[in-house]
């Protein structure tokens, strides 16, 4: 259990408190990094970098509650993940293409497992996935995303729209596969 | 918006749930923590080393300043002073910390009839090294006035009588010196080692006297001729005055000057 006292001890470079913070947030931070990077080693690098930066700079910051620290740590992780993505040569946004949006039944949505959701999201192209994660999961606005990725707001909106269309398409494909498998049985 | 329910479920799942059957989410947490610890340790060491370097530099500056401002430094002694290096004896333990004392006395007073204006100044240095005195009788003659070097008056301004009275006064003080008393008290026991340093000798210039015959012989011919001519002219002037008083009036008074020759009186 992470408390404000633990965070304050870690601010004074207490090793035990830092270890407690790592144990408490390591999985969340790794998951966050993996959503952007889709590579285990890259995600581990980002986790270590994010925690190192947090331990070095948390003495300068003031945290009124535990969620403040969690949001601060996640922000550091997102920035580090984006930095890692920029280092890759394949970080580019896809050109416009049309997707037909079909309605998905509630039954199909309820049947989706967590593993399936992680799978279809990680299959998204890096540009779509990044904007989708920033907007839908982390809650950044298009203006913030445009600033972080050095793109225009319109591009951010269109990338998000296309990411959602692609996700729907993949869910429908899963539904078809599920229906086929059900018919075969 | 279309399929909003789908995106809500995706958002909730990605933000909070960790699927157990999703292999890529298995990772080596301990290895990452070791990496974090390794990265943090050298930086702490560097920070400590930086503070240690600052402290060492500060101590160095303090020691350097102390050394430069040391009043006992040999660099502050006047260039006319000469220091007699003592021969250390390891058989005796160190006695006292460094002390410098000055004494001023008239050596002429002790020798009475020779030179009154001869004043000797002595600097007595007691070092931490034990020193065997070469001549214990000379140690008794050393008069310690104070524990610090005092600025003496300019010796060139002293008259002979003043120097004499001063030397007489200091001779009396020297006999009451604690060093002398201490040595007297220690005469039955151990001899306290001391280092004595003779600093400077100053002679007052003598008054000019009438040159002797030998000095005259050493002078050049031109000087001797000039001196003899001056003396002859002076004697002649006095002879003429005497002749004027005796000559009276008349023709003889007109001729008397021409008949006067040296040694005719």
Give the arrangement of secondary structure elements.
The complex is a heterodimer of chains A (185) and B (265).
Chain A: H1 4-11, H2 15-37, H3 40-57, H4 66-87, H5 106-111, H6 114-122, H7 126-137, H8 142-149, H9 153-184
Helix pairs in contact in A: 1-2, 2-3, 2-4, 3-4, 7-9, 8-9
Chain B: H1 4-16, H2 29-68, E1 99-106, H3 107-111, E2 118-126, H4 136-141, H5 160-175, H6 178-185, E3 195-203, H7 213-218, H8 221-247, H9 252-259
Antiparallel strand pairs in B: 1-2, 2-3
Helix pairs in contact in B: 8-9
Mind telling me the C-alpha Rg of chain B?
47 Å
SS-derived structural category of chain B? mainly alpha
Tell me the count of domains of chain A.
2
Mean pLDDT score of chain B: 64
Write down the CATH topology of the largest domain in chain A.
Rna Polymerase Sigma Factor, Chain: A
Structural class of chain A: mainly alpha
Low-confidence stretches of chain A: none
* CATH class division of the largest domain in chain A: Mainly Alpha
What is the molecular shape of chain A?
Answer: globular
Largest sheet of chain A, if any?
Answer: none
Strand order of the largest sheet of chain B: 1-2-3
Oligomer description? heterodimer
Strand content of chain A: under 5%
- What letter string, H or E per element, gives the SSE order of chain A? HHHHHHHHH
Q: Approximately how much helix is present in the residues of chain B?
A: 40-55%
Strand content of chain B: 5-15%
Which consecutive residue ranges of chain B, at least 5 long each, have pLDDT under 50? Answer: 97-104, 115-133, 136-161, 179-185
Supply the number of helical segments of chain B.
9
Question: Biggest interface and its residues per chain?
Answer: A-B, 40 and 30 residues
- Whole-angstrom Rg of chain A: 19 Å
The total count of helices of chain A amounts to 9
